[in-house]
Write a structure and sequence with these properties.
By secondary structure, the chain is α+β, with helices and mostly antiparallel strands. The chain is about 30% helix and about 45% strand. It contains four helices and seven strands. It has a seven-stranded antiparallel β-sheet. It starts with a strand and ends with a helix.
Length: about 140
C-alpha cells in the first residue's frame, strides 16, 4: 500500500526566500520538526534521520531535480522508500506558495496507522507551518 501526502502553505515571503531555505537540505531540521539531522554527502546525495511517533527512521536520498525558485525533488536510495517534491510558486513580489508532495510505502504497524488516520498529513502540515513561520521571519528581517 502506497501513501501520498500533499500539503500547501502560502508564505508572506518572496519565492527566493522560500527556495533558499528549502534547497539547503542541512537546514531541514530547523523547520521540519521530525527531522533530527541531515548530512550532505555531495551536491546530489544526503542522509537524514527522522524521529517519528513510535519509530526512528534513516534515509539515504538523492536530489533528482533542482530548478531554482521552482522545484526541488528527491528519492530515497536506502531506508523507507519514498519520493518527494517541493514546488515553489511566486504569488507576488512578497508572497509565495509552497507545495509538498510525498509518496511513500508505509512499513510496520505505526506507519500504516499514521497513513490510515492521516497523522502523516497532520505532521506534514505542522512542519509546513513551521517552515512558513521561519521563512516569514527571514523575509521580515531582510526588509
Amino acid at each position: 500500500m502506497s501513501s501520498k501526502i500533499l500539503e500547501t502553505v502560502d508564505v508572506n515571503a518572496p519565492v527566493s526566500v522560500s527556495w533558499q531555505l528549502w534547497s539547503d537540505v542541512t537546514r531541514w531540521p530547523t523547520f521540519l520538526r521530525h527531522v533530527e539531522r541531515v548530512d550532505r554527502i555531495d551536491e546530489k546525495r544526503f542522509t537524514w534521520w527522522l524521529s517519528l511517533p513510535g519509530a526512528d527512521k534513516y534515509f539515504a536520498a538523492e536530489l533528482t531535480e533542482a530548478v531554482a525558485e521552482e522545484r526541488i525533488a528527491w528519492k530515497t536510495t536506502a531506508g523507507v522508500h519514498h519520493t518527494g517534491v517541493v514546488v515553489f510558486q511566486q504569488l507576488s513580489d512578497t508572497t509565495s506558495r509552497v507545495t509538498l508532495h510525498i509518496d511513500y510505502d508505509p512499513e510496520g504497524f505505526i506507519e500504516h496507522l499514521g497513513a490510515l488516520t492521516n497523522l502523516d498529513k497532520v505532521l506534514a502540515n505542522y512542519d509546513l507551518g513551521q517552515f512558513q513561520h521561519m521563512a516569514e521571519e527571514v523575509a521580515a528581517a531582510a526588509r
